[in-house]
Amino acid sequence: MAHRSFDPQLPVAPRRRLAGSGTADVEVRDGVGGSPRVGPEVVVTLEYRLYDAKAVLVEAPGPDEAIEFVFGLGQASPAIERALEGLQVGDVARVQLPPQHAFGLRDDTAEIVLDRAELPAGALVGDEFEAERDNGDVIFLRIVALDGEMVRLDANHPLAGQAVTLEFDVLASRGATPAELRSARAELAARNETEAEPDVLASRLLQRGRLAAPKAE
Fold it and tell me: pTM for this one?
């Protein structure tokens, strides 16, 4: 099984609802399994599905592209960790994230003007493209206007301004190795120095270009 580091259809089952913090509505459904429960200093391996605000499935890479991270050391947002804590292999969870904890709010000033020759021939208003920043981050661009030899693009992510839903299947859990803990703690210390918020899963996926942009209507 190919795993990617964590850097963004539930079966019928009994439910238990966890208390929310005002930033996310968390719902967990119980499963079965005898592995260590998800908790501090546990490496958890997850399959995930991502839905937009209209409950349309946007991303579902499957178990062959499972993600894994060390729980409790800032590699996932608090809302996601609340949804996963205490689960075992075979359990599934769902967390709903508001825009500010997913792909951010829409920025009406996030527009880019380019020479039309830089785009593929025949590009039309509504077409979408991926671009890469100098730091390797992937951004999505949508054509909003064509003006002679110039083109205006919207640089907001397609899911900006939307509440999204993430569903997780717990595939594996184990105790973290000393090396994994040292690495996770170093990342957390570096993040604390810059006062950055923990990245949610969706934001990590965006940075790696995993999320496919839905076509404009």
Answer: 0.65
